[in-house]
Amino acid sequence: MENLTPKKGDDDSNDATPSKRNSSGNIVGYLKEKNDAELIYRRQELEVKKTATSIGGGKVQTRET
């Protein structure tokens, strides 16, 4: 019985685009933005904890991940 599905080597068309690699500059920029966003989030979280402890005078419940 014949196999009706074409094999990868039998394809004569060159329409396939080569895969692109991310440049290291893009990766470094992404990681820098991610780090900056995390720092801002942590500072805001600390501010909330400070205000909650000064208002409530007790222990603040935090969500641990």
TrEMBL record:
<protein>
    <submittedName>
        <fullName>Uncharacterized protein</fullName>
    </submittedName>
</protein>
<feature type="compositionally biased region" description="Basic and acidic residues">
    <location>
        <begin position="1"/>
        <end position="11"/>
    </location>
</feature>
<feature type="compositionally biased region" description="Polar residues">
    <location>
        <begin position="15"/>
        <end position="26"/>
    </location>
</feature>
<feature type="region of interest" description="Disordered">
    <location>
        <begin position="1"/>
        <end position="29"/>
    </location>
</feature>
